[in-house]
Amino acid sequence: MAVTTILAIYFITWWVVLFAVLPWGAYSQDESGEVTPGTDPGAPAVHRVWIKLIWTTIIASVLFATLAGVYKAGLIPTDYLMAISGSPRH
Questions:
Q1: Cβ contacts of 44 within 8 Å, gap of 6 or more
Q2: Which has more confidence, 3 or 77?
Q3: Are 11 and 61 in contact (CB under 8 A)?
Q4: What is the structure's pLDDT at 35?
Q5: How many domains does the chain have?
Q6: Which domain holds residue 20?
């Protein structure tokens, strides 16, 4: 597999995991009882973006390594991947 393909798959995996991690520990200003004037009450009270980015990177790396290991070990045949992706057979 080409390096660009590996990077693209990791990039997509990272973004999907990011959207799963973003809601972790998030609570609104309304829930905390401290609404800052001029902001939406549904806005997060505390952002903690850097922690979420670190967790995203850790989880995406473990998930990607697992998927890459399964692929390299041949546990999912290439013919099966072609069949479920709708790619034309040669």
A1: 26, 27, 28, 29
A2: 3
A3: no
A4: 86
A5: 1
A6: 3-85
